[in-house]
Design a protein that fits this description.
single chain; about 750 residues; alpha/beta
Length: about 750
């Protein structure tokens, strides 16, 4: 299907499709006699914004008159070769635009702006005017500064007769000028006109558009634009503008998007206006052909069709309109951690704080990332996916972002057993050092998830949860993990026995129908009867002092609702967290189980997340987490629920409780094996651990295609010492042991 504006690849000049930037356009329209610089990356809409400003200025203001006559000039098309030629180009474009507007105004067109753009004007208009104004002193298409001033004043007189108050030059691709040797002369002269020439200062404005070179020129010490030019950053569209744009395109194509398709457009475009347009084109093309638009099909089509476009954005040859080395380095690190602060990215890239800030500024105005609560977040998934597939890895000091070198990493801690006197620093420092140290430690550059599989506290008291919360918060901040990527579940030590959930009654007052198995305990001449309404209050401290403050929402008090499901669509990882302590209390301390109905509810919710965010063809690795083991001693006795999980393609189970490493396989001969990984105890004291078992934790490294899992086991042999590898796993050589083991999920 033929569409306007070269399939929306060129600048939009039809006011019907000029969506967004309303505040900026209004500012230019209300005060057009300033010097402004519009900065933004490729395809972010700089030219379209200038065209929108041109259209706005050609419309009468609220007071019924025109403010300034707009003069659009693209230095991508007209490239002056000297300062004099630059001045000649400005006057030439001004006089040609005036000629076109006079003819448009006389025609009384219903679409004056479209007619204005379509009017032709040749070089004779400029030559005739300059010859008349200057006496043919402009021979080689060059103007001296005094002649330029004279031509401007004569033009202003003509414009006032046409109803305009002044002139606003809209100079697209102004980076061309700042790269010329005569650039300082040109902008210095413009500054002099604005600073001291009262005949022109109130009536002359400039809006320049560009990218990194223009930004750096404006910030350079001694630049004529320092202090006189206001910077305006173009970024992605806000949600309201995005939805308006989509609605207009759908109306034009006589079709519509469902909620799932709309979410896909937002996610894959990151609200970048150009990518939004191209994604919509992919949907509308399928609609016109009568073909079914699956998310996988649209993604594949977009990546194939615009691979060359993305390559020019990323181009390592340091083209002026592409991403520079610093931007590429910072972006690669950001797509690994998803969210990060400036100082964290500086640490990870070994770049200075200032260079990282500059790189983030460019990435943000390129529409590839956005700023959220002091952190920078990866935006357009389409570009991110292309980078993961094609980007040159050499720009990162950490090496290539390939599957083998850039796995998904999960830090699995269990059984912290923090009390009110726990030293946070003594626990945090050695752990972070072991995770990041390249000499003897794991040397990780980032984490994707943090899993705490229960027993964060010792007796479920508020002060203990405060200590555990502070520890985890520091850990999260260090590795730029948001709340959703931190999975927290209760253990038996996180159940408060101070909550009174049993009521004693003498036997004579208890009817036989009140004695349900597991709901009572005989005590002397009476019974302790469980009060189901208050039974969930055992987790009140866990919820109020720990879970809610870490995640922003309370932990469910109803047993059948005690599951948390989280899907990371980018990584294809879904975590299902359950409470194996829902029936544990002071009188039944060993009663570990999973609620009969909670697994079915969790799986329904998990399926819904996948349906909402991913196409069914997308691969998802499901991981289940709870506190108690399902093998060996202290296991969950009623383990029939494992069959449901295995059938639902849960492949890994993470747990704690037993204070030792566990590596088991359930259903060894079943085509869908369930691999069980126990983390040991991170903080349990010596007398609570099996003999000769040190403090332990795990790090899981999962290949990006989910084919292989590498489980690193780390140990702390003495308090106050350093963490190291726990070499207990069989190696190829029967006389040696490894500090990790692997799980092949494709077997």
């Amino acid at each position: 299907m033929m569409r306007s504006f070269n399939n929306f690849k060129s600048a939009i000049t039809d006011p019907r499709f000029m969506v967004g930037r309303k505040e900026l356009i209004a500012e230019i329209q209300s005060s057009p006699h300033l010097i402004r610089i519009l900065l933004g990356g490729r395809r972010i809409g700089k030219t379209t914004t200038l065209r929108a400003a041109e259209w706005a200025l050609l419309n009468r203001g609220f007071d019924g008159h025109y403010r300034a006559f707009p003069v659009f000039a693209s230095f991508q098309i007209v490239q002056p070769d000297s300062f004099g030629n630059f001045l000649h180009v400005l006057i030439g474009e001004l006089r040609k635009a005036m000629f076109r507007w006079r003819r448009t105004f006389k025609a009384k067109s219903h679409h004056p702006y479209q007619r204005f753009l379509s009017q032709a004007a040749d070089e004779m208009i400029t030559k005739d005017f300059l010859g008349d104004a200057l006496g043919d002193r402009c021979i080689k298409k060059e103007l001296r500064s005094e002649h330029f001033r004279t031509a401007l004043l004569r033009s202003l007189e003509d414009l006032k007769e046409m109803g305009f108050d002044g002139i606003c030059f809209l100079l697209d691709e102004a980076e061309f000028v700042v790269r010329q040797e005569w650039s300082d002369t040109a902008w210095g002269y413009i500054r002099a006109l604005k600073d001291s020439d009262m005949s022109l200062t109130p009536f002359l404005g400039f809006v320049l558009s560009g990218y990194r070179a223009l930004k750096e020129y404006r910030q350079r010490v001694g630049s004529p634009l320092v202090g006189i030019a206001e910077l305006e950053w173009l970024s992605v569209l806000p949600d309201s503008d995005l939805r308006e744009l989509i609605a207009k395109r759908c109306l034009e194509e006589n079709t519509d998007l469902n909620d799932k398709q709309l979410r896909f457009v937002i996610c894959w475009s990151g609200r970048h206006p150009y990518l939004v347009m191209q994604l919509l084109n992919c949907f509308f093309d399928d609609y016109q052909k009568g073909e079914r638009s699956t998310m996988a099909r649209i993604a594949e089509k977009l990546l194939h069709r615009y691979s060359e476009e993305f390559s020019s954005w990323w181009d390592p040859s340091d083209r002026p309109d592409g991403l520079g080395r610093d931007e590429r380095c910072v972006y690669l690190e950001l797509i690994n951690v998803r969210k990060a602060r400036v100082e964290e990215l500086a640490f990870r890239t070994s770049l200075s704080h200032g260079r990282v800030l500059d790189a983030l500024e460019v990435l943000e105005t390129s529409g590839l990332i956005y700023h959220e609560k002091e952190r920078y977040v990866v935006g357009a998934k389409a570009f991110e996916t292309w980078v993961r597939m094609n980007a040159t890895p050499a720009v990162s000091r950490f090496g290539p972002a390939s599957t083998s070198e850039n796995p998904i990493r999960i830090l699995h801690l269990s059984d912290l057993h923090f009390d009110a006197s726990t030293d946070i620093s003594a626990n945090l420092g050695p752990l972070v050092m072991d995770l990041t140290d390249t000499q003897g430690g794991l040397g990780l550059r980032g984490l994707d998830f943090l899993v705490i599989s229960g027993d964060a506290s010792q007796y479920a008291r508020p002060q203990e949860f405060d200590q555990a919360r502070e520890f985890i918060k520091c850990l999260r901040d260090t590795f730029s993990l948001n709340a959703e990527r931190c999975i927290l579940i209760p253990g038996n030590h996180d159940v408060s026995w101070d909550e009174k959930v049993y009521e004693w009654k003498p036997k004579r007052l208890v009817a036989r129908g009140q004695l349900y198995p597991g709901h009572y305990r005989e005590e002397g001449c009476g019974y302790l009867l469980r009060e189901d309404r208050r039974y969930g209050n055992r987790f009140k401290n866990f919820s109020e002092y720990f879970f809610r403050k870490m995640s922003g929402s309370p932990y469910p008090m109803r047993s059948e609702e005690q599951s948390i499901t989280y899907l990371d669509a980018d990584l294809g990882i879904q975590i299902l967290a359950f409470n194996s302590c829902w029936e544990i209390d002071e009188w039944f301390p060993l009663r570990a189980s999973i609620h009969p109905g909670v697994v079915s509810r969790a799986l329904l919710k998990a399926d819904g997340q996948i349906e909402a965010q991913l196409d069914r063809a997308d691969k998802v690795l499901r991981i289940a987490v709870w506190h108690h083991p399902v093998t060996g001693n202290d296991k969950i006795k009623d383990d029939a629920f494992l069959d449901q999980l295995r059938r639902a393609n849960v492949r890994l189970v993470l747990h704690g409780h037993v204070h030792e490493n566990r590596a088991e396989v359930i259903g060894y001969f079943h085509p869908k094996k369930l691999y069980v990984i126990g983390a040991g105890a991170f903080g349990a004291p010596t007398h609570r651990r099996p003999e000769s078992t040190p403090r332990l934790y795990n790090v899981l490294e999962i290949e990006r295609d989910h084919s292989l899992v590498k489980v690193h086991t780390r140990c702390l042999r003495r308090n106050g010492g350093a963490w190291e590898g726990w070499a207990v796993w069989a190696a190829e050589d029967p006389t040696s042991r490894r500090t990790y083991y692997t799980i092949n999920l494709h077997e």
